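anyone seen this seq b4? input:
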Amino acid sequence: MDTSDLRKHVEALVFVSETPLKSERIAEILELKNSVVLHLLAELSSGYDQSGSGLELIEVAEGFQLRTRPESVGFIQQLIKTRPFRFSRAALETLAIVAYRQPVTRAEVEYLRGVDSGGVFKTLLEKQLIRILGKKDVPGRPLIYGTTREFLEFFGLRDLSALPTLKEFSELSPASLEAQGSPLTLDKEKMPDLEPSTEQE
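predicted toks r here
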């Protein structure tokens, strides 16, 4: 099988995968070395960039995924008639604390925020941006939380080491997120509207 055929097969696998596809899985399916798959993925990514395509191949959540380019988000929203998603300030604060301090308890988050965060925790759990990691080994055994693979996908991060600095994260306002558009593949179920109505601001 020549290189062009292999590249087509890699592209097809990434295209049909519902979640970011790891290079190791592609290598397993095509019976190739992982280094060969990584080279083919790099060629594909470069090809999309050089051709001026409306798609890009990016590494996210420790896998690879085809996505539309951010500059097209306004037109895509017109096509599929979805309203822009919005993060509330409280949701961003809570998500930032969990992301940078995980594993963390709800009480620790509430101490840092200075307000009850039950409503926003519930919403972030429902949207699968945070998850329960277990229980802390202290009296009362409170639940501890961390971010999810969906969190990495949503923010277009390869892994947690790719998180922006705390200063950069704090500058992400709800308005700026809306203006940037979601880096996610356009799935209505994956367009969170993080505006909990039960929390105390």
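The first strand starts at residue 55 and ends at 60. The domain at 3-68 is CATH 1.10.10.10 (Arc Repressor Mutant, subunit A). kinda curious what u guys think
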